[in-house]
Design a protein that fits this description.
Layout lengths: L24 H19 L17 H10 L1 H22 L6 H23 L5 H9 L1 H16 L5
């Protein structure tokens, strides 16, 4: 009777281990959503730090009435979930990069500034101090997101 040969291992002790995989996207997205929601909640304490998508008093009547039906909490929850997923996808894409925390933070800040500036240019009629404060509050948000996501992902592989 012939015995089947033992399976050949792809990685034995003399070979390098496979690179670690990034954390699950759902875990990163949920964490980023919670960070976004924390900043939304803190930012709503002052008009000048309120995120652009929650500045309903400065929107046109059409948008204010339409979004007012949902309420600011629902708008915040949905927007935070979308922004959290976007941050998680970027973090996963940067998984193997060196100094990814800085790169991720700058990318998230750029996205915040572009989308927020677009909202102020197209939909909002807020005074400039409110607009600047709202956009500037994206700096600590992006830094916190990059720090938290970087900590979850562990050390970079390169």
């Amino acid at each position: 009777m012939e015995v089947a040969p033992a399976p050949i291992r792809c990685y034995d002790r003399g070979m390098a281990l496979p690179p670690p995989a990034p954390p699950p996207l759902a875990r990163l997205a949920l964490t980023a959503t919670l960070v976004h929601f924390t900043f939304d909640s803190a930012g709503r304490l002052f008009t000048a730090t309120t995120p652009p998508y929650l500045l309903l008093p400065f929107m046109s009547d059409l948008f204010r009435d339409m979004l007012g039906l949902l309420g600011v909490n629902a708008i915040s929850a949905v927007t935070c979930a979308i922004n959290g997923l976007i941050a998680a996808v970027f973090a996963t894409a940067f998984f193997e990069l060196p100094s990814r925390r800085l790169k991720l933070g700058l990318l998230l800040l750029t996205v915040w500034l572009l989308t927020g500036s677009s909202m102020f240019a197209l939909y909002l009629s807020a005074p400039w101090p409110v607009a600047l404060g709202s956009l500037a509050f994206g700096v600590p948000r992006a830094a916190a997101l990059a720090w938290v996501l970087d900590r979850i992902m562990g050390p970079a592989t390169r």
